[in-house]
Specification:
The protein contains 13 helices and four strands. The protein is mainly alpha-helical and 316 residues long. The chain has one domain (23-309): MetI-like fold, CATH 1.10.3720. The strands form two sheets. The protein has a two-stranded antiparallel ribbon. Helix 2 crosses helix 13 (283-309), helix 4 (91-127) crosses helix 11 and helix 11 (232-255) packs antiparallel against helix 13. The longest helix is centred in the middle third of the chain and has 37 residues, at 91-127. It is globular. 34% of the residues are buried.
């Protein structure tokens, strides 16, 4: 953009002011931070992360697993801000370390689901023919079966393993964490696969793909260099929302007795400790339940903000 300025001699000069072009990421960031609920969700999520991971500097994981039958079922107090559970363990550090595992399960399960769903959708939409038919029939068959039935079936087969594994700096972690991540991740990709497939079907007929093909681009170049970047918006939004879905799924699997096994704590299996006496010991389910609700709400707010930020029809 040129601006006009006059010199002391009266000669008019044109100053060339080049404005930095907006990229899709800059536009999306500007839209995102104009979304009040998304910003609020981001603040909530940062607070939860600081609580779960920063709290580890104040309480050891060994202390969170320390049993004290003398202190069992203690209500919230100055000594035990969140109360104690059925074997006298302090719920504050258990909620901290349980939150870490719940968040890790959510992120890893979502990552698996996003990777599988994206790859299935890309391959199905790009190649078409019998490959598309085969992959979509598998996808539709899995969607036709109630998700809870599949989750319980695979959980029964995999989660019963009581072995543990060691991560440096941590207490032994139940192998059931790995099983739950795989189960939720491998059963949560179908809807994204259909979304990505529909995007690919539309994009592969666009002029820029035709031009790249004419110039001799190979199919990996077309698929991952030209088509995939234009599918990122729905993938990013789905990835965000999938984290909250995975956290809730782990919670109700734990509540039904098919979740993460001791000694590892999660928000979900903390709830199971009082499943038969909820009215008598409300703090045991209300505190992890509130953290779970706030986390899922924060993730949903962030997902809504990302959806609006990457919406090409948005004029904000």
């Amino acid at each position: 953009m040129a601006s006009i300025s006059a010199s002391p001699t009266g000669v008019v000069q044109l100053a060339d002011e080049r404005k930095k072009p907006d990229t899709i990421w800059r536009v999306a960031a500007r839209r995102y931070f104009k979304h009040r609920m998304a910003v609020f969700g981001t603040i909530l999520m940062v607070g939860i992360l600081l609580f779960c991971f920063g709290g580890a500097f104040f309480f050891s994981e060994a202390y969170s697993n320390q049993i004290s039958l003398v202190n069992k079922f203690q209500p919230p107090s100055a000594q035990f801000p969140f109360g104690t559970d059925n074997v006298g363990r302090d719920l504050l550090p258990r909620v901290i370390y349980g939150g870490q595992i719940s968040l890790v399960i959510g992120v890893l399960a979502a990552a698996i689901a996003i990777f599988v769903g994206t790859m299935v959708g890309l391959i199905s939409g790009f190649f078409g023919g019998w490959i598309d038919s085969l992959l979509m029939r598998i996808t539709e068959a899995l969607l036709a079966i109630p998700a809870l039935v599949l989750l319980l079936l695979f959980s029964r087969a995999l989660v019963g393993n009581t072995t543990t594994f060691q991560i440096p700096g941590r207490e032994p972690i139940s192998f059931s964490v790995v099983a739950i991540v795989l189960i939720i991740g491998l059963l949560g990709w179908m809807r994204l696969a259909r979304i990505v497939r529909s995007q690919v079907l539309a994009l592969k007929e666009q002029e820029f793909v035709t031009a790249a093909r004419t110039l001799g681009a190979t199919w990996p170049r077309l698929l991952f260099g030209h088509i995939l970047p234009n599918c990122l918006a729905p993938i990013i939004v789905t990835a965000t929302l999938s984290i909250g879905t995975a956290i809730v799924t782990e919670a109700y699997l734990s509540f039904l007795g098919f979740g993460v096994l001791p000694p590892t704590s999660t928000w979900g299996n903390i709830l199971t400790r009082v499943s038969n006496e909820m009215e008598k010991y409300p703090w045991m389910w209300m505190i992890p339940g509130v953290f779970m609700i706030v986390t899922v709400l924060a993730i949903n707010f962030i997902g809504d903000g990302l959806r609006d930020a990457f919406d090409p029809r948005s004029t904000k």
